[in-house]
Amino acid sequence: xxxxxxxxxxxxxxxxxxxxxxxxxxxxxxxxxxxxxxxxxxxxxxxxxxxxxxxxxxxxxxxxxxxxxxxxxxxxxxxxxxxxxxxxxxxxxxxxxxxxxxxxxxxxxxxxxxxxxxxxxxxxxxxxxxxxxxxxxxxxxxxxxxxxxxxxxxxxxxxxxxxxxxxxxxxxxxxxxxxxxxxxxxxxxxxxxxxxxxxxxxxxxxxxxxxxxxxxxxxxxxxxxxxxxxxxxxxxxxxxxxxx
Length: 244
Description:
Blueprint: E1 5-8, E2 14-17, H1 21-24, E3 25-26, E4 31-51, E5 61-85, E6 94-96, E7 101-114, E8 119-131, E9 138-144, E10 147-153, E11 159-162, E12 183-189, E13 197-204, E14 223-243
Antiparallel strand pairs: 1-2, 2-3, 4-5, 4-14, 5-7, 6-9, 7-8, 8-11, 9-10, 10-12, 13-14
């Protein structure tokens, strides 16, 4: 607009002098938002018992009892919650975390079969736990009614059992648990948004994502039970207040 001067009036509106009033105001939407850094910290475990028919070649596993413990830490540097109004463009609805930090250990104890002595031979082994592909965790949210509703992909990946090549037993079924088992949901009421710190308990797997308890046997004639669970908190720390 040639030769037009721009000044700012009340309510944050830009006013152009020397142009018709109908064209003079460019409205800046009003909103209040809070920026948080977030961290999800959970601890969990798994337990597996399996048995197979005795007999067969020397070295075959006839029973095993495995367990694991693990921790997962997810940092999310930017979580913006809009308490009122609408930000230019669209209100944020998600955040991608930096790489999850996974630590853990596993053990497996059981018996193999000695065909010559016609008896069981005990064994024991173990190792550490990591993640398969180091995919970044995800946090998604929507505002509905008087709360923000979140879905957290605590581990956007599967855990993997490291060191299993030293073990005569089968790999702990933990490596086969699908990614959805590490997702959960939670809500934050609007009255809490704006607080310096928000802490919410989280746990999983959710009922519809829980792995089957009898589907971890590597032998069609064997029997097996498997369980895994995890719990912890998400902590949000306010870093900025954004108002326009």
